[in-house]
Amino acid sequence: MMNRPLSGIGATYEHNKLLLDSFRRWTGQDLVHVELDTEKGLEEQLFNASRVILSHGTEKDPVLNYGNRMALELWEMDWEQMTSTPSRLTAEPMERAERERFFTQVTANGYVDNYTGIRISSTGRRFYIVNATVWNLVDEDGVYRGQAATFQDYRNL
Length: 157
What we know:
- By secondary structure, the chain is an alpha+beta fold.
- It is 32% helix and 28% strand.
- It has helices at residues 13-27, 39-47, 69-74, 79-82, 93-109, and strands at 52-56, 64-67, 111-120, 126-138, 144-151, 153-156.
- The radius of gyration is 14 Å and the shape is globular.
């Protein structure tokens, strides 16, 4: 179920760079320590990072377009499920209004640190994320490309 994307199916090099560069632009920090800045090396490092990393696009109802190994495991999805799931469905219905207010704040400010909230996996398992950073994905031309989140701490409920 938590299979790694097959070569060529995972995030593109450009999307991986967007995740890294946007995170650095907003926070002044590195999302992961990049040891090998090649397409394959970057894909491996982000996918196997010791933190959850996920992102969604700019659709009216944004759909997840990336989840690393830890995200796939936490949300109990495979790559195809993850990348076809509307982002809002990662939160319980009662948490969605708060989640929407939060993402409006991220859009306005570029990023928010220390976010906490309840999320739900594809099987209905609830968990509490702690100290997440959520940031806007903005390319080199200043074009908004979506939002991403990362965190290391969570508790099952």
